[in-house]
UniProtKB/TrEMBL annotation:
Keyword Ligase found: no
A GO-annotated cellular component: chloroplast membrane
Highest taxon above the source species: Eukaryota
Protein name in the entry: phytol kinase
Keyword terms, alphabetized: Chloroplast, Kinase, Membrane, Plastid, Transferase, Transit peptide, Transmembrane, Transmembrane helix
Uppermost EC category: transferase
Transmembrane segment boundaries: 77-96, 108-125, 172-191, 197-219, 231-252
Gene Ontology biological process terms from the UniProt entry: vitamin E biosynthetic process
Amino acid sequence: MSLLVSTRPSLSFRLNFNLLRRPTNLPLSSASLTPKPPPLPTPPLHILRRAPYSSPCTPRAASTAATAYSILRDSGAAAAILAGAYALVSAFDFLTRRNLIEQSLSRKLVHILSGLFFMVSWPIFSTTTEARYFACLVPLVNCLRLVIHGLSLASDEGLIKSVTREGKPEELLRGPLYYVLILILCALIFWRESPVGVISLAMMCGGDGIADIIGRRFGFLKIPYNQQKSWAGSISMFIFGFLISIGMLQYYSVLGYLHLDWVQTVQKVALVSLVATVVESLPTTEILRTLASE
Ligand SMILES: Nc1ccn([C@@H]2O[C@H](COP(=O)(O)OP(=O)(O)OP(=O)(O)O)[C@@H](O)[C@H]2O)c(=O)n1
Ligand SMILES: C/C(=C\CO)CCC[C@H](C)CCC[C@H](C)CCCC(C)C
């Protein structure tokens, strides 16, 4: 005997009751007297069988629903990350205003954390091709914010205090603006599909940021060709840039976005970290200043 148990109109399961039944071919009294009852028939392997699925949706309706879901998910993710970016800058503004950390440290911590958190947040977005455009809205809104305040069209002391070196609005149009533009480019071009964007951002945010923090504190021994940079800063850039890149690649591999040969990856990331460290240590500002004055 089988019974149809229906939970939802579209899903139904056939429950086979053979297993639960006691043998009925014997009267109760004789069953108790008979030493050995006949063996039960072999139980079927599947007691729960799924009835054929019949969707009430047409393929077109299902695809519209999926698109609507992706748009909703991507807009929600962009809004949440935008709020996170605002909260991060506000938190560092709070810390600098209370003199709990120096302005230069605040700026570098925002530099390290905002890009890395932004990159870590990418898996929240859907798998559609448009997802990266939604993600780019976050640095784009911050880019507009930097331009508006950098040109002094509006004033935001908190933003200026937490991301500039000397507290001048026009500083927003240099380091911070280039930074968000690079975030936009990496998200648009490489997104979650290429290790190039992941490594570039890990070096720019993590490596370069840590070089400053360590170099300012322990950079007594300067690099021969650049008296502004130190061995301590450059060595930390190499080590942390390498470790953060590997960590981020591992994160994207575990989530299934990247499939890497780790021996080759470690070698290549070490080489990229070395090249980035050497480039960062060059006296580019001095060279550009000399060229501009000629
Ligand atoms: N390899 C490095 C890099 C930085 N620093 C220290 O960090 C400071 C800031 O260097 P830099 O990264 O060039 O940052 P900023 O000049 O603040 O400007 P930006 O972050 O916009 O590049 C330097 O003066 C230096 O004390 C260092 O010792 N060694
Ligand atoms: C100080 C900075 C660079 C100079 O070296 C960094 C400026 C950061 C921007 C003002 C804010 C950028 C926010 C990111 C686009 C998103 C961060 C999201 C995350 C979840 C916190």
